[in-house]
Amino acid sequence: ILFSFLILLFFFPSCKKPADLGGCDFTNSLDNYQMVWGDEFDGTEIDASKWSYELGDGCQISDDLCGWGNNELEYYTDRSENSYLDNGKLVIEAKKELPLYIGQHEYTSARMVTKNKGDWKYGRVDVRAKLPTGQGLWPAIWMLPTDTVYGIWPRSGEIDIMENIGSEPNKIFGTVHYGLGLENWTYFSQDTIKASGTFVDEFHVYTVLWTEDCLQFQLDGVN
Asked: Among residues 173, 223, 210, which one has the least CA distance to residue 11?
């Protein structure tokens, strides 16, 4: 399955695995990887050749997807108020709207995707990001299948490189979702808790290493 990515910067190798790779014994040397896609956000506008937007609140797709299946309150836009570049950084900003956005939405944000502009199977993905904090926030960096060749979610899988609950700023998750259907959907999740400070204080590098045999999450180069 080719996967595309939602949100931020990606560093990816070729699909050729180093000879010493086996199971989850990944190498951290970047000499074993070839960079095939990236975005440093050093321009004046978001690069439309690399990024698209998913718009709305999910209701436009189906009633079952209202709130995108997670009871989300925001309406996703492609406005510069919700996503923009600032001194070499991509900023995704959730806003409380007054008056209501298009007459009915109290919150807006942005949901950026590389679908059909950057899609890969296997490799290494590095995302450098600084997280927001606050009740109700849910920043996430996801990998979803470009084509649901095995069927709709969760049959074709989902890899969450990083998720955070805004009310728990010292804790992040890496998760894999799979299953034959909603009735037997399952997942494997790995969490990391900072002993001091939060993920809001500074930038961190969130990584997934993915081969045919294994998948591993890292934080700042540490498993």
From this structure: 210
183 is known as an active-site residue: no
Active-site residue 158, yes or no?
A: yes
- Cα–Cα distances in angstroms (integers) from residue 186 to residues 28, 141, 179, in the given order: 29, 19, 6
Q: Which of 72, 106, 158, 168 is catalytic?
A: 158
Find the catalytic residue in 54, 163, 168, 202.
163
Q: Which of the residue ranges 27-36, 86-95, 212-221 has the most confident prediction, judged by mean pLDDT?
A: 86-95
Residue 115: phi and psi, rounded to 5, are: -55, 130
> How far apart are alpha carbons 168 and 134 in whole angstroms?
8
> What's the pLDDT tens digit per position in 32-63?
888 999 999 999 999 999 999 999 999 999 99
Number of H helices, E strands in the chain: 0, 16
Q: Shortest CA distance to 12 belongs to which of 156, 124, 106?
A: 124
* Residues sharing a CB contact under 8 Å with residue 197, sequence separation 6 or more, in sequence order: 170
On whether the CB atoms of residues 115 and 2 are closer than 8 A, the answer is no
Q: pTM score > 0.85 for this model?
A: yes
Buried/exposed 72-91: b ≥16 CB within 10 Å, e otherwise: bebbbbbeeebbbbeeebbe
Tell me the pLDDT tens digit for each residue of 11-23.
333 334 444 434 5
